[in-house]
Amino acid sequence: MSTPPLPPHDTDASPDPRPTVVPMQWSAAEGAWVTGSPPPMEPRARYGSRPWVHLLLLLATLYTMTEAGAGFYLNYLTGVGVRPLPRDLTRVQAFLGGLWFSIPALLILGSHEMGHYIACRYYRIPASLPYFVPAPTLVGTLGAVIRMALPGTRRALFDVGIAGPIAGFLVLLPLATYGVSHSYVVQLPRAVALQGFNLGDPLLLTWLQHTFFGTLPDRSVFVMHPTGFAAWFGLLATALNLFPAGQLDGGHIVHALVGRASRYVTIASILILVSLAVFVSYSWAVWSALLVLMAYAFGLDHPPVGEEHLPIGRGRVALAVFAVVMFVLSFTPVPISPIDFIGGR
Fold it and tell me: What is Dmax (Cα atoms) for the chain?
C-alpha cells in the first residue's frame, strides 16, 4: 500500500486572525487530503423511506407503464391503424403486450438511478433507493428520482452526476437495437387519414432505422416496436437529465468542471429551452417551465461543494466529452408533434 503524501499547508484561508484548526484526513477514493469530519466506516443502506415504499411505487409504475405500453402494442399490431386488430385478441393479451414497453423502460430508468446510487455508496454519500413515479401520462410515468446528500468534492459530484446517464445509456443501446430491428414499414393506402401524435426520433434511433431499413419509400410509415418506444423514452430522459442546468445531472457535471461559472451555463440552458418552446416545439414548454421554477426556488447557483481547489483529472474531462456525445445522440428538437396526414387518391 502506497504512503499518502504530506497534507498541504495553510489550508485555512479564512481572514479571521484567530487560529482555526481544520481537520484533515487522507481520502483513498479522492486520492487527496480532504477537510471535514471523517465519513462513517459503512455507508448508510438507505436515505429516507423504507424499502417497501420503493417497492410499492415500482409496482404501481409497472402497472401504469404497462397500461401505456398496451397502446403502443396495439399500434404495433395494427400498423398505426392501417390493419384491423386480430379478432381473438383479448384485453388481457393487449395488457400483457404492454410489457414489451414497460419492462425495458423500467430497466433503463432503474439503471440510470442505480448508477447514481452506486456512485453515492462508493463515496459514502447518504442516498435513497430509486423512487419511481407512476402517472397517467403518454408513457405512464414521470420518471424516477433518488434522494441524496450533496457530494463533498468536485470529483464526487462529477462521478455521481455522470454515473446515472452512462448506466442508463449502456442498458439502452441493446434495447434500442432490438426495438428498431423488430419494427417494420407499412405502405399506406391511396386514401387514408392518420391522426394522433408523432414522436420525433433522436439521432441514435434515426441511425438505427437507416441501418436496418435504409431510405423509406414514399407513402410509407415506420411502425416502431414497443421496445423501440421504451428506448425513445429512455433517450428523451437522458437528454433532459443532461441539460447543463441547475441540479440536473448535466448541471452537476458542469459545476464539477467549471465551478461557480456554472451559473452562466444554467442561464444559457434556460434561455435555449425557452426558445425551443416558443419557436420550435411547444412540447418543450413544460420542461422549460420546470427549469425556470427550479431556478426561482433554488437560485441559479449550484450548491457549493467542498474542496473546490482539487482538479477532477483528465479522465473525467474525457467522460464529460462522452456525456456530450450521449446528449447529441439522445436529443431531438421536436419530441412530440401532432399527426394530421391525409393520403391522396
Answer: 88
Helix axes 249-258, 314-330, angle to 10 degrees: 150
Beta strands at 193-199 and 336-342: parallel, antiparallel or unpaired:
antiparallel
- DSSP annotation of 280 reads I
Residue 3 is given by DSSP the state P
Alpha-carbon distance of 128 to 225, in angstroms, equals 33
**In the chain, which residue ranges form alpha helices assigned H by DSSP?**
51-78, 91-97, 99-122, 154-181, 203-213, 226-241, 249-258, 262-275, 285-298, 314-330
What is the Cα–Cα distance from 67 to 61, expressed in whole angstroms? Answer: 10
What is the dihedral sign for C-alpha 273, 275, 281, 285? positive
Backbone angles phi, psi at 131, to 5 degrees: -100, 110
Q: Are 236 and 199 in contact (CB under 8 A)?
A: no
User: Whole-angstrom Cα distance, residue 95 to residue 147?
Assistant: 32
Q: What is the dihedral of CA 139, 103, 112, 227, to 10 degrees?
A: -70
Residue 225 dihedral angles phi and psi, to the nearest 5°: -65, 145
pLDDT, tens only, 50-100: 888 999 999 999 999 999 999 999 989 988 777 778 888 889 999 999 999
Whole-model pTM: value is 0.81
**What is residue 98's three-state secondary structure?**
coil
Closest CA to 116 of 126, 102, 104, 103: 126
The pLDDT tens digits for 207-265 are: 999 999 988 887 788 899 999 999 999 999 999 999 998 888 999 999 898 888 888 99
Count CA within 13 A, CB hemisphere, residue 60: 16
Between CA 51 and CA 48 the distance in angstroms is: 9
Q: Which three cell numbers stand for residue 80?
A: 398505426
Contacts of 342 (CB under 8 A, 6+ apart): 191, 192, 193, 194
Task: Identify the sign of the CA torsion 246, 247, 253, 256.
Answer: positive
Contact by Cβ (8 Å): 61, 106: yes
**Could you tell me if 35 and 13 are in contact, meaning their C-beta atoms sit under 8 angstroms apart?**
no
